[in-house]
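Hi V.,

You were right to ask for the full record rather than a summary. Here it is.
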Amino acid sequence: LAKMDGAIILTEDMNQVLRANVHLVPDSSLYTSETGMRHRTAERVAKQTKATVISISERRSTVTLFIDNFKYVLKDSREILAKSNQALQTLEKYKKRLDQVSGNLSTLEYEDLVTLLDVVIVLQRSLMVEKVAVEIENYISELGEEGRLLQMQLDELMANVAEESMVLIRDYVINKKDSISVKENLLELSNDEILDLLTIAKHLGYGGGVNILDQKMNPRGFRVLRRIPRLPYSVIDKIVKRFGDLQTILNANHRELDTVDGVGRARAEIIQDNLRKFKESTLMDRYV
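Predicted structure:
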């Protein structure tokens, strides 16, 4: 079929051929920037039908994707692999730095010494990691089966990153702001905007000048409680609502934790024991 000069029309899920060797006659009044007849037709069909159109040029050795007004020329797989490997190396460096600043924040949280600057630095690093990951995802999509190993590496590096940034936002965002909307807006920031710590702080709800970054912060406790195995989010929400902030949670005994709906005596002891271990290991990693 691919050797035929006409178009091949597939179902929307691309699992079945509906027509082959079809002569397409789109509206000639539609603007096209293409020069070759095949590509001109493909672009016009995409604009007219809103369907995905793929144009293959043997002479140019190119595959071009048209979707409405969008055009994308697929790159050579060797070029994509080179770029994706380079991006993966960058991601590894960014992730290592994220782990460092995240660990530092954990220490400061246990010591009750967190400032807004510490928070936005971690969030900044998390956004940088997620931005690079999106770029790699695009490369993997183009590579198809050849991107399978890259996907495995990416999945390993990105494990819990998005979730960690989400609970970080929940810990420090101004009460009236919706955490999900804040995260979505942060991901839409440009690379230059991400480098501006005040911009990130503003999205969390903290206005003002540079001095605002020195403001002392009290984490609510979502980030630490999330680390406790098999502790449902519904219970975490109730614990945070009951005690208000991390320091109060850390100082609560198992009887006080037991009063929270959904906790119970056994779970209260597990929570208290895990919080103690987390604090000890975090401080030990920092100072030993």
